[in-house]
C-alpha cells in the first residue's frame, strides 16, 4: 500500500499539522474538565496568580497533566516504532513485551521491601525492570530449534507480562501500606502527577528522543536483512544493543512518570506507516507525534466518558488499542 504522504514536503507538512494539533489538544487539556476555565484565566494563573481554585487547578493539575501526557505519549510512540522495527514484529509494544510490567514490578519491590521513595531512584528502577523483562522475553522467544520468531516473541512477552503483573498485584494485596502509597501510580495515569515527576526524567527523555531519531537510519538498513546490513559495513550487533537500550530508556521514563500505560506504542507505528510508508526514520518521528496526540486525546476523553467521574487513561488506551491489536494479529495470521 502506498503511503498517504508520498513526498518529503507532504511529510514535513504533516509533522507541522501534527504539532499544531498537539498544541490544540494541550490547550483543551488545560481548559476543559470538571471545572471549565478559559485561556485568559490560564494566562492569569501565571501572570497574576491570586490563589483562587481555578488558578491552583491550572498551575498544579492541568498544565502538568497536559505536558506529561504529551511527553509520555511521545516516549511510548517512539518506543513502539523502534521495538517493531528491531524485532520485525507488528505486534511489538512495551506493554505486550513486558517492559512496562517489569518496570512496575521493580518499583513496587523497592517501595515494599526497601522503602524507596525518591523519584530519581524510581527512574533507575524503572530502567532496570524494563531491561530485565525485555531480556527475559527475548531469551524465551529465542528458545527452541526454530529460533526467534515474531509469534514466539509476542507469546513470551505476554507470559512475562502476566507473570510480573501477577507478582505485582500479589505484593500489593498482602501489603496494604504499599498499596496505599503506590496504587494511584501503578494504575497508569497522567492525572494527579506533579510537574516535578516530568522534570526529574526530562533529560533522560530528551536524550532518548534524540537517540531514537539517530538510530532510526541504521535500524532501517538492518530491516533490509542482516546480511545486507553487514555488507554495507554496519555493526548489526551494536545497532540492536543501542536500539534495545533506547527502548528501555523510553519505557522506563514513561513508567517512572505515569505508571504502566499500554497499547499506545502498538497502534501508532501502524498509523505512521499508513501516512509515511516503511522508512523507519519517518515512522519513528511520526509515531512519537501520534503517540502524543493519542495520549492527550485519550486523557481528555477520559474526563467526559463517565462524567462527573473520570475513567483511567489506561482503560481509554486499551479501548483504542485492543481492537488494533486484534486486527494486526488476524492480519498477520492470515498472511502466515
Automatic annotation (TrEMBL):
<keyword id="KW-1003">Cell membrane</keyword>
<feature type="transmembrane region" description="Helical">
    <location>
        <begin position="237"/>
        <end position="263"/>
    </location>
</feature>
<keyword id="KW-0812">Transmembrane</keyword>
<feature type="transmembrane region" description="Helical">
    <location>
        <begin position="195"/>
        <end position="216"/>
    </location>
</feature>
<protein>
    <submittedName>
        <fullName>Iron ABC transporter permease</fullName>
    </submittedName>
</protein>
<dbReference type="GO" id="GO:0033214">
    <property type="term" value="P:siderophore-iron import into cell"/>
</dbReference>
<feature type="transmembrane region" description="Helical">
    <location>
        <begin position="97"/>
        <end position="116"/>
    </location>
</feature>
<keyword id="KW-0813">Transport</keyword>
<keyword id="KW-0472">Membrane</keyword>
<feature type="transmembrane region" description="Helical">
    <location>
        <begin position="313"/>
        <end position="330"/>
    </location>
</feature>
<dbReference type="Pfam" id="PF01032">
    <property type="entry name" value="FecCD"/>
</dbReference>
<comment type="similarity">
    <text>Belongs to the binding-protein-dependent transport system permease family. FecCD subfamily.</text>
</comment>
<feature type="transmembrane region" description="Helical">
    <location>
        <begin position="12"/>
        <end position="35"/>
    </location>
</feature>
<dbReference type="GO" id="GO:0022857">
    <property type="term" value="F:transmembrane transporter activity"/>
</dbReference>
<dbReference type="InterPro" id="IPR000522">
    <property type="entry name" value="ABC_transptr_permease_BtuC"/>
</dbReference>
<feature type="transmembrane region" description="Helical">
    <location>
        <begin position="66"/>
        <end position="85"/>
    </location>
</feature>
<dbReference type="GO" id="GO:0005886">
    <property type="term" value="C:plasma membrane"/>
</dbReference>
<dbReference type="InterPro" id="IPR037294">
    <property type="entry name" value="ABC_BtuC-like"/>
</dbReference>
<feature type="transmembrane region" description="Helical">
    <location>
        <begin position="122"/>
        <end position="141"/>
    </location>
</feature>
<keyword id="KW-1133">Transmembrane helix</keyword>
<feature type="transmembrane region" description="Helical">
    <location>
        <begin position="283"/>
        <end position="306"/>
    </location>
</feature>
